[in-house]
Amino acid sequence: MKTRWTMQDIAEKLGITKMTVSRYLKDPKSVSKETGLKIAKLIDELGYIAPKAPAMLSKSSSKAIGVIVPSFSNMVFSDVILGVNNKASKEGYSILITHMSYDMLEEEKQVADLISYQVDALILSEPKHTPLTLKRLKEYGLPVVETMSLPYRPIDLAVGLDHEEIAYKCTKALLECGRRKIAYLAVRLDFRTLDRQKGYEKAMLEKGLEPLTFSSPERSSFTMAGDLMREALASHKDLDAIICTNDDVAVGAMLACQALGIKIPDDLAILGYNGLDIANATIPKLCSIKTPRLEIGETAFDLILKRLNHEKILKKKIKLSHGITDGATVTKEEHQALLKTCED
């Protein structure tokens, strides 16, 4: 780990006192304009972040891990947080949790805030970041684990799933069982949703079939999913399967189909994504691609602990496997074909 930049570092580089730097950080107008401009320029160059936890400054470790998730309302990330906390509490670490609303600029702010609280490491949930975020993480040298997805070039470490590959394999499985008019329902249009769309489209195009994507940039809800389902059916009355970007969308689509008298899975197969508990409560039970969210959180902390303890890490990018829930929104033949996608 690199040494964190301090006010003393800034003072020495500029040939001024630490007190002058401190005064500027508290009130930029308290120093001369010329000096203030020099300090501001150097702070920007270094990516310096003023600490908010002075009591931690004299310690080599804060014993705190920062965790940034895209949303508090999305149940997917509660399992990831639980996984991190399960391991962290056993090792005497606390976790500081915040969210970035699927917004890279908001993540930039949250990263700065967590660094200011002297966290020992960061766990992130999105695969792309602003240039300033990347610069700060490089300058401070904190262990960083990117989760959920698998960036082509991780900042440091990564643990997650290849969502494009999973969607490709599952779409292909349905196609091999005879489905032909398959649509993809997408919401929010975050990186993972778009990766799944790529996988779906790849499988459809390989079969010489037209990809049919119906999407909304808004957050998912049963109502929105129902609207997308009705839109898809209005455009293509012969739809015989849909793949959904998450389970909320799948349930909303199911309700819309049931209201229209469409038989599931005889007339139309429905496949969800994430394998949330709601999949067990629907009638029929929703078949969903199950993501190992608890394992992602636990593995992320294990990687961080190894990095903090200066242990050798053999794999810096860990690809986990998906599962398929025992649902009845696909036929038995289709369920068996989907299960085989988990074997590779």
Task: Explain this structure.
The chain has 12 helices and 12 strands. It has 344 residues and is an alpha/beta fold. The protein folds into 3 domains: 7-46, 434 Repressor (Amino-terminal Domain); 59-161 and 294-319, Rossmann fold; 163-290, Rossmann fold (3-Layer(aba) Sandwich), CATH 3.40.50.2300. The chain has a 6-stranded parallel beta sheet with strand order 2-1-3-4-5-11, with helices on both faces. The protein has a 6-stranded mixed beta sheet with strand order 7-6-8-9-10-12, sandwiched between helices. Helix 10 links the parallel strand 8 and strand 9. Helix 5 (104-116) runs parallel beside helix 6.
Gist?
The protein has 344 residues and is an alpha/beta fold. It is 44% helix and 16% strand.
